[in-house]
Design brief:
Number of domains of chain B: 3
Structural class of chain A: mainly alpha
CATH topology of chain A: Ferritin
CATH architecture of chain A: Up-down Bundle
Helix content of chain B: 25-40%
Oligomer: heterodimer
Shape of chain A: elongated
Strand content of chain A: under 5%
Number of strands of chain B: 27
Distance between the termini of chain A: 57 Å
CATH class of the largest domain in chain B: Alpha Beta
Number of helices of chain B: 27
Shape of chain B: globular
Order of helices and strands of chain A: HHHHH
Strand content of chain B: 15-25%
Largest sheet of chain B: 7 strands, mixed
Largest sheet of chain A: none
Largest interface: A-B, 34 and 34 residues
Number of strands of chain A: 0
CATH topology of the largest domain in chain B: Rossmann fold
CATH architecture of the largest domain in chain B: 3-Layer(aba) Sandwich
Number of domains of chain A: 1
CATH class of chain A: Mainly Alpha
Distance between the termini of chain B: 47 Å
Helix content of chain A: over 70%
Bound molecules: iron/sulfur cluster
Radius of gyration of chain A: 18 Å
Radius of gyration of chain B: 25 Å
Chain lengths: 162, 776
């Protein structure tokens, strides 16, 4: 049985996704929705890891926890600065689109690692793991859908203007 | 008539459950005017979404007063203080009477020709350099249906940009989206007469005594009459409605969703669910039940800062109701998890089977008088006639109506919301912004940011308004607009009642109706249909209204059976009004078939946490097909929790005497005298801790800005600070300290409705004792 591998893949993918969500949110903090939702969804990744930790030990895998967020006060200051500097340039659009695309791929990766884990859980008749994986999977899938929506809205303005 | 400043709701005219609300005609005419010499012209009030029927009194070509229409179904003759006194703004000496054009940094009078040519030249330049996506339009909730429909065609069909929104985004976007999420399309299910027969009222974040004074009179007449309905109120403030409540849940702002989940938890756990109704007419019950199972009263009490027993008591009242009317307003719409929470209020009525019959409905109420029309005409986040931008057949219908190629109408994404439009202006991809009848320099969040965006040189700003507002100060061109009483048109209130408002007097100077300005612009710009004929086919409001009737035929907001002739005299008429239902329709969904058929619905819905848009297949997977959708959501904490530096929660709101940024109500002497200046409300224990006494000046500060105002003590829960949002600067340009509540609010919006959040910000309060002018 190699379920430990699948669990570690999920851990890696969710950790990476959380990091990217925060990074993108902060780099594009003038896109206020990205900033807020990026942090909310990164927190969700952390919750996923915590839930997985409750069963990981059974398969000999060490618990992982997501990297912590910074304090909102600090970010607020950074955001204002960024808004003045970066936010007024049209080049931010291309950068934004590229970062969103990258983030979307991270979300897709995390999503498929959950699918793999779900399949393994089914075959091993581990209902506890299956329940966790199913719920986390649907949340991760939503993260991808959200990014898809955001990318569809952003690309016309970035690419068709000028 | 009693002193209607002191007695906002007038004398009581109580009536029993199911009875007719007695008529009472409220009237106000200027001193010295002889009633005999007054001509009365039919209209309705445009100072809130109740839309009370009123006649305008005219003498010698001047408006001299108003009186309520006793036969009107909305108000039975009553008017509130804003309705009675607000019309005086029309006669204000500082109305704009000529166009203004900025020359050498200053706004100078100009001719219409000069001003319009400048607007058109700049439009052409931006269209050439940036394309249609370089053009943005931001309109009002106070124009008429005819203005909006003309604007929607001009922008979406003619210019071909999705960047058109209304300031209704600030007041009713969540109402619109919550209705679409649950019922498949926009449209208030119920009728105002449901207040007459209900046995239970559930008001969530709705300070009705201040926002909708005449509707509150109706409720007071029930509450203080025989067969008093039970009342449950959710609000962090001890408002007048909260004082009348059987249970008042004074929760922490930002926690509505947890509370509503808690109430649903109790309804389900105690079997207070109409299971037959739920099984036959809804989808999503299992998911909802499993979601709210995690919200027992004790947990919710902790999140919301209320007593668990009060949650139980509230649920018991709702669970025992036989005719339940629920209402929501800004306390939900402008707060954290707005659409998600508004959907839970819909759920509560659905769980109880309380919809589509007398006394049983949910009202996702509106704020502004003509907000409903921006939604119907497509001058905000929707397509004309409640069409679905993701449904190619709907877009084709529109293209056919407008004689355009379908590809001309932007439908690759949802219509752009105002905060995004401003973001595009900030980054420089939008270079032309036309603002009609609204004042974003006071009403949008985080004002220093708004001012810096509007003040950019590369952005060309056109403002149409009756007055020189704070926003007009940023304009390159200002166009003087005719308003209510000076033009004919229609508008629709929050129970779908359509009123005709006739022209009573000429506009001042060269001011013109917005519809005429749009037609003029479209012609000068040369906007054409696909056969090369002028895009806009109508010239008069009546022709426009008839065209809109055709545009809505077969859609939920069907106006095809309405005409000006039919709306003249008598009362207003509720849509849908068709050949089959010529007198209008009092309630939607009386057959419990909802508008969730894939081909018919207005929206495929969203994930409530992230706002991820569902696509067609997601929607069809739910197999709603005429059943209402019970949407579930988890509570997630607000994004700016109080901390050591900013330990309190800030919320904003309204007074009965003012409307929006006071451009009209400040010019009515009685209203101005009743609420002349900004204030701040603090809870008793917080005031003690801060050493603040009633009338002391305080400074309220967030990470984004501050305001200073006199303190009023009591009336809010501990840890919460309240300020009204009306007080900008146009009447006091030399004022030293800011008073606009939106200096403090943050740039954040609901992920689904994109409504900005004005009810959750972390702040600190310090006592300054005296106003800044007296301090130095
Ligand atoms: S309740 Fe609203 S519509 Fe009625 S008079 Fe007052 S402001 Fe006008």
């Amino acid at each position: 049985m190699k379920i430990d591998e699948a669990i570690q893949d999920v851990q890696r993918a969710e950790t990476e996704l959380a990091k990217r969500l925060r990074l993108t949110g902060e780099r594009h903090a003038v896109e206020h929705d990205l900033f807020h939702l990026g942090h909310t969804l990164a927190r969700k990744c952390g919750e996923h890891l915590d839930r997985l930790a409750t069963v990981a030990g059974k398969y000999g895998v060490q618990a992982e926890s997501a990297p912590a967020a910074e304090s909102p006060g600090l970010l607020e200051t950074a955001r204002h600065k960024a808004s003045e500097l970066l936010g007024r340039s049209e080049m931010t659009g291309m950068l934004l689109l590229r970062d969103l695309r990258e983030l979307y791929l991270r979300a897709q990766e995390a999503e498929i690692t959950w699918v793999i884990l779900m399949q393994a859980a089914k075959a091993c008749r581990d209902t506890e793991l299956l329940e966790i994986a199913t719920q986390c999977h649907s949340e991760t899938e939503l993260c991808g859908k959200w990014l898809r929506t955001r990318i569809k809205e952003t690309s016309p303005q970035v690419l068709a203007v000028g | 008539m009693s002193d209607r400043i002191a007695e906002v709701w007038g004398s009581r005219t109580s009536y029993p459950a199911g009875g007719d609300w007695p008529a009472r005609v409220d009237e106000f005419v200027e001193d010295g005017v002889e009633a005999g010499g007054v001509d009365w012209v039919q209209s309705a009030c445009v100072l809130c979404s109740n839309g009370c029927g009123m006649d305008i009194g005219v003498q010698d070509g001047r408006i001299v007063g108003v009186r309520g229409r006793s036969e009107d179904r909305v108000n039975h003759g009553r008017l509130g203080p804003k309705g009675l006194f607000g019309w005086q703004a029309n006669n204000s000496p500082d109305r704009l009477t000529t166009p203004l054009v900025r020359r050498d940094g200053e706004l100078k009078p100009a001719t219409w020709d000069d001003a319009m040519n400048l607007v058109v030249d700049r439009s052409r330049q931006v269209l050439t350099e940036q394309g249609p996506l370089g053009m943005g339009f931001y309109t009002s909730g106070q124009l008429f249906l005819e203005d909006y429909y003309t604007l929607a065609l001009m922008v979406r069909g003619g210019i071909g940009t999705p960047h058109l929104d209304g300031n209704t985004r600030l007041c009713t976007a969540t109402s619109d989206f919550a209705l679409k999420e649950t019922f498949g399309t926009d449209g208030a299910p119920g009728s105002l007469t449901d207040f007459d027969s209900c046995d239970t009222l559930f008001a969530v974040g709705h300070n009705m005594p201040e926002t909708h004074t005449v509707l509150w009179s109706r409720m007071l007449d029930r509450l203080q009459g025989p067969d008093r309905p039970k009342l449950v109120v959710v609000d962090p403030r001890r408002t007048r409605i909260a004082q009348e409540a059987d249970v008042h849940l004074a929760l922490r702002n930002g926690t509505n969703l947890a509370l509503l989940n808690g109430i649903q938890h109790e309804l389900i756990a105690n079997g207070w669910v109409d299971q037959k109704f739920v099984d036959a007419h809804t989808v999503g019950f299992e998911k909802l039940a499993s979601t709210v199972a995690a919200y027992p009263p004790e947990r919710v009490a902790e999140i919301c800062g209320v007593e668990a027993d009060d949650i139980r008591a509230a649920a018991r009242i709702i669970g025992a109701s036989e005719r339940l009317v629920s209402t929501c307003l800004q306390g939900v719409y402008q707060s954290h998890q707005a659409t998600a929470s508004a959907c839970q209020v819909n759920n509560i009525n659905l769980l109880r089977g309380m919809i589509g019959k007398p006394g049983a409905t949910v009202f996702q109420l509106n704020g502004q008088p003509t907000a409903q029309n921006t939604r119907e005409t497509g001058a905000n986040g929707d397509l004309t006639g409640m069409r679905n931008w993701q449904n190619p057949a709907h877009v084709e219908e529109l293209a056919k109506l407008w004689n355009l190629e379908p590809a001309q109408i932007p439908s690759w994404g949802p219509p752009t919301h105002i905060m995004q439009i401003l973001r595009y202006a900030e980054e420089g991809s939008i270079r032309f912004l036309w603002i009609t009848g609204t004042n974003p320099a006071v009403s949008l969040p985080e004002l220093h940011r708004i001012r810096s965006i509007l003040g950019q040189d590369r952005l060309f700003v056109v403002v149409s308004d009756p007055f020189l507002t704070e926003t007009a100060e940023f304009a390159d061109v200002v166009l003087p607009a005719a308003i209510w009483g000076e033009k004919t048109g229609t508008f629709t209130n929050h129970d779908r009642t359509v009123h005709l408002s006739e022209k009573a007097v000429d506009p001042p100077g060269e001011a013109r109706p917005d519809m005429e300005i749009f037609i003029d612009y479209a012609e000068r710009l040369g906007l054409k249909d696909k056969d090369g004929r002028p895009l806009i086919k109508w010239r008069t409001p009546e022709e426009c209204f008839a065209a809109f009737g055709e545009a809505t035929r077969g859609r939920p907001c069907d106006y095809s059976g309405l005409s000006y002739e039919k709306l003249r005299g008598g009362s207003g008429i509720q849509w849908p009004c068709t050949d089959e239902s010529p007198d209008g329709t009092e309630r939607l969904y009386s057959d419990h078939v909802f508008n969730t058929q894939t081909e018919y619905c207005e929206d495929y819905g969203h994930d409530l946490l992230t706002g991820a848009a569902h696509e067609r297949k997601d929607f069809t997977d739910q197999q709603a097909d005429g059943r209402a959708i019970l949407k579930a959501a988890e509570f997630s904490p607000p994004h700016e929790p109080p901390d050591d530096d900013y330990p309190m929660l800030f919320t904003t709101g309204r007074t009965a005497y003012h409307f929006h940024t006071r451009t009209k109500t400040r010019r009515a002497p009685q209203l101005q005298a009743a609420a002349p200046e900004a204030w701040v409300e603090l809870g008793t224990t917080d005031a003690e801790r801060l050493g603040v006494a009633e009338g002391d000046f305080v400074r309220v500060e967030s990470r984004r800005g501050y305001l200073e105002a006199k303190a009023r003590i009591g009336g809010v829960r501990e840890g919460v600070v309240f300020a009204p949002f009306h007080y900008g600067y146009w009447d006091k340009p030399d004022q030293k300290a800011p008073t606009a509540a939106n200096e403090l609010t943050s740039t954040e919006w609901d992920p689904v409705s994109k409504q900005p959040l004005f009810k959750v910000a972390a702040v600190r309060v310090t006592k300054t004792g005296r106003p800044v002018e007296e301090r130095s």
